[in-house]
Amino acid sequence: MACPQFLTDLENSGLLHCYGKAGRQQENILSDYKKNNIETLVTDRPPCKSAYAHNRTVNENNIINITLLPDTPAADINNNRIGELFTLCVLNAQSLNNKAAQFIDYVVDCKADIVSLTETWFTSTESATRVLCTPNGYNLLDHPRSNRVGGEYYCQKLAAGELRSFEYSEWSVVNGSCRLHLIIVYRPPYSDAHPVTTSVFFSEFTNFLESITLSNDPLLITGDFNIHVDCTDNLDSIKFLDLLESTGLKQHVRGATHCSGHTLDLIITKQTDNIITSIPRIDHLFSDHNAVLCNLESNAVPLTQKHISFRKLKSVNIEALKEEISSSDLCKNPPSKLIDLVSCYNNTLMTALNHQAPLISKTITTRPAVPWYNDEIKCAKRLRRKAGRKWRRTKLPTDFLAFKTAKNHTTFLMNQARQNFYRQFISENIQDQKKLFRATKGLFRHDSDLAFPHYNDSNALSNDLGQFFAQKIINIRSELDTASTYEQAVFSDMPSVSLNSDQIYQEFFPMSDDDTERLITLSNKKSSSLDPIPTKLVVECLDVLLPVITKMINLSLESGIFPCVWKEADVQPRLKKQGLEVIFENLRPISNLPYVSKLVERTVCNQSHNHLSLHHLYPGNQSAYREFHSTETALLRVKNDILMNMNRQHVTLVVLLDLSAAFDTVDHVLLLQRLQLKFGLSGTVLKWFTSYLSQRTQRVTVGDVSSEKFNVDCGVPQGSCLGPLLFVLYVSELLELIERHLPDAHAYADDTQLYISFRADSRIDQETAVRTVEMCIDDIKRWILANRLKLNEGKTEVILIGRGNNSKKSTSTIFVLAAMLLLVLRTPRTSAAGLTRR
After folding, report:
1. Rounded distance, CA 815 to CA 430, Å?
2. Smallest Cα–Cα separation from 444: which of 127, 830, 832?
3. What are the helix and strand counts (H, E) for the chain?
4. What angle do CA 614, 619, 623 make, to 5 degrees?
5. Residues facing residue 696 across a β-bridge
6. How far is the CA of 671 from the CAs of 39, 329, 786, 788, in angstroms?
7. End-to-end CA separation in angstroms for the chain
8. d(CA 222, CA 88)
9. For residue 222, which of 271, 186, 172 has the smallest C-alpha distance?
10. The dihedral sign for the CA sequence 334, 340, 346, 348
């Protein structure tokens, strides 16, 4: 109720306007309202009239416990798009290969939660183009055509296929508690390249609908059907709409979606599903098709929020940090024992870092963004929209030409801005190769963050991952331990190595401060979560910390002890190959280790390398993990041998062997025996390696959450410099075994190539070569079992290489023999104990 004075104030300020009946003045209405003010009455509530009111009591069975939602800050509500509806975009792209900048800008602009694309013209080999067309915050999932360009994309794939008249892909979309059965369809128009009539399409599409309309989930069919459903007198249109109605479906798009003025891009749902909240709207003319937007009966996908912890390292006062470290017991009175010194180092640096740069926790929201967007593009887009509205209103050819000109100019500006952005970035960081590498990896690879859709609890995820990695090795070792009992005795005839006194390696050389400084300068400055302080600050405070680091290294070398705190690995799961499904089986554990421990490892690795090189103890045909040896040298050696065989009119039979989880199953006892007997390690050196390999642990980190610790009783760490060297020494006997049978073989880490050449026109040479390789592989399989390794039969390949004229001379016999050889490789081997290897 408003008081008269309040109404007068509103009237005087011009904010109040009164409109009455015809013939009556406004002033009279207002004056009458002021005079005839209604009096407000305040009374007590009357008593209940029910005669049974006084007998009522509380029935506790009717009480419901209400769970209150946690308070959400206002900023989070705004950032998470609460109240917005789920937005679907349907678009025929007519090739995305040259529209990456335009597509990314449009998706970010329209805030689509899911995009249904047809005619992307992607092929299975265009991985870079796919990444360039994926905006930040989105994932690209597609189904390329098998024999020509094109495809559709998004979500968890259920099925995909190509019929004579149309292509389709099925996806299951899950957004919270809402599920959606999404089907993307593309029907090519009739042409010489696709001479399929609409009658074939109606027949195939009818059968297709019979199978999908039985789904219990809400159904949404989108795509380009190339049928003019807007033409009421078109026979194909009438037949298509009758088909939809007879199957209980409804088409929602109204208006032209093609520049020719017809409706080709459709959105179809069940008549009983109310998932479309409003009529789909025709949006931007992206190609010769308009994008179609509609809202679904579901909340919009919330923006990704991350809880991060960080320190403001740039604001650290280096001089104050040095002063605090130099005045501590670490520098003034350092412990004499290694374990105590390492503990003092970690505690002192962590305390100093907390004083200078305390840990800050914050929640951030990740939004899709276009980094090269500028004001010129913004202005051009405004003019493009204006020209588009005018053309849609007038339908004049001149206005359409003006719109196309504005559209092409905007696309040109976007492509130019994107190129200039990355060109400037490269020119500014031309001397920083690491930064350029990280930027390139970000451009052509998806985000390294792994999304596990079935996990909401990060603690459970990290622990399950840690248990999976540990149990995987336990299962493999359990099989290998049983199978290798018999095989161990088979290789008792392997020749022993006799070493002279000069080849015995008993003690490490101590490090000077200059040696340590040189080591740090050449080393990778990567930090680990296990480090007490970022490596960057260690380098900046090196004049204070250098004597302490040198002392820790020398104490470890002198005592033959590798402290347990250095044996804990922080494991980061990474996909074995980009594009694989994010499941545990497709992940590889990468170990991150403390920085000082890696300096000690590098010292031991360098000194051990000098010993092995000086006495020529390295395996000759192994190209991994040492200077002047690489994948290039391995490929060069194998290619050169094959070309030389071709010059002799020979063909080459190549067998590619691969080991499964090779680094993780190395037996520590066998490794230490091999280091002592074959490579001359003894005394303090052997004691150090024994300490290094024993009592190792690891924990898996996903995001900011780490799992519990898991014991590592076998294997060598892949994230260290010493682990690969130890693996090469462990499998050195394998190449010696191969040399018993074959003159040519080469290896890079756990990948081994066996090859033998022979005359293609000689049946005897063919059979002899295959029989020789078969005997060699049989011994290899036995040696692998004896050394508790596992052959990866799935990645083992047999290749026959030769000139064309030699291939014509050869009969089918060699191919049959090669197939039999591959069968031998993949045949389970039964040991005397009766265990069948798989």
Report:
1. 51
2. 127
3. 26, 23
4. 100
5. 712
6. 99, 40, 13, 11
7. 85
8. 10
9. 186
10. negative
CA distances from 67 to 72, 73, 783, 833 (A): 15, 18, 63, 60
- Give all domains of the chain, ordered by start, each with its CATH number: 86-296 (3.60.10.10), 305-365 (no CATH), 375-444 (no CATH), 471-508+560-826 (no CATH)
Residue 160 pairs with which residues in a beta bridge? 169
97 Cβ contact partners less than 8 Å away, ≥ 6 residues apart? 121, 122, 126, 129
d(CA 629, CA 625): 7
For residue 178, give every residue at least 6 positions away whose Cβ sits within 8 Å of its Cβ, in sequence order, or none.
Answer: 86, 297, 298, 299
pLDDT at 444: 57
CA–CA dist 796, 826 (Å, integer) = 8
**How high is the mean pLDDT of the chain?**
78
Q: Counting beta carbons within 10 angstroms of the beta carbon of residue 99, is it exposed (0 to 12), middle (13 to 18) or buried (19 or more)?
A: buried
Q: How far apart are CA 661 and CA 216, in angstroms?
A: 43
Nearby residues of 397 by Cβ (< 8 Å), 6 or more positions away: none
From the CA atom positions of the chain, what is the Rg in Å?
36
The DSSP code sequence of 65-120 is PPPPPPP--HHHHHHTTTTPEEEEEEEE-S-STT-HHHHHHHHHHHT-SEEEEE--
Number of C-beta neighbours around residue 13 at 10 A = 8
Grouping H, G, I as helix, E, B as strand and the rest as coil, residue 195 is coil
> How many CB atoms are located within 10 Å of the residue 359 CB?
9
**Count of positions (residues) in the chain:** 838
Chain-centroid distance of CA 764 in Å reads 51
pLDDT > 70 in the chain, percent? 75
User: What is the Cα–Cα distance from 495 to 540, expressed in whole angstroms?
Assistant: 52
3-state class percentages of the chain: helix first, strand second, coil last, to nearest 5:
45, 20, 35
CA 723, CA 300: separation in Å to the nearest integer? Answer: 48
Residue tagged 């405004």 (tokens):
382
Q: Is the separation of the CB atoms in 660 and 649 below 8 Å?
A: no
For the segment 250-273, the average pLDDT, to the nearest whole number, is: 89
Pairwise CA distance, residues 149 & 194, whole Å: 14
Mean pLDDT of 496-505: 76
Per-residue buried b or exposed e for 404-418, using 16+ beta carbons within 10 Å of the residue's own CB: bebbeebbebbbebb
Amino acid at 437: F
CB-based contacts of 696: which residues, under 8 Å, 6+ apart?
567, 568, 569, 711, 712, 713, 717
- For residue 445, give the amino acid letter: R
Gap between the Cα atoms of 838 and 828, Å rounded: 6
Spatial distance between the Cα atoms of 30 and 436, rounded to a whole number of angstroms:
74
Q: Among 722, 718, 756, 751, which residue's Cα sits nearest to residue 739?
A: 756
* Cα atoms found within 13 Å of the Cα of residue 160, Cβ hemisphere only: 18
Residue 512 in 3-state DSSP? coil
The model's pTM is: 0.64
- Let me know if 347 is exposed, middle or buried by CB neighbors in 10 A (0-12, 13-18, 19+): middle
At residue 273, what are phi and psi to the nearest 5 degrees? -95, 125
Highest-confidence segment of 143-157, 572-586, 750-764: 750-764
What are the tens digits of pLDDT across the range 300-351? Answer: 666 667 777 888 888 889 999 999 999 999 999 999 999 999 999 999 999 9
Q: Please report which confidence band the pLDDT of residue 761 belongs to, taking 50, 70 and 90 as the band edges.
A: confident
Q: Can you read off the two tokens belonging to residue 648?
A: 């002799």
- Sign, CA torsion 638/643/646/648: negative
Burial of 193 (0-12, 13-18, 19+ CB in 10 A): exposed
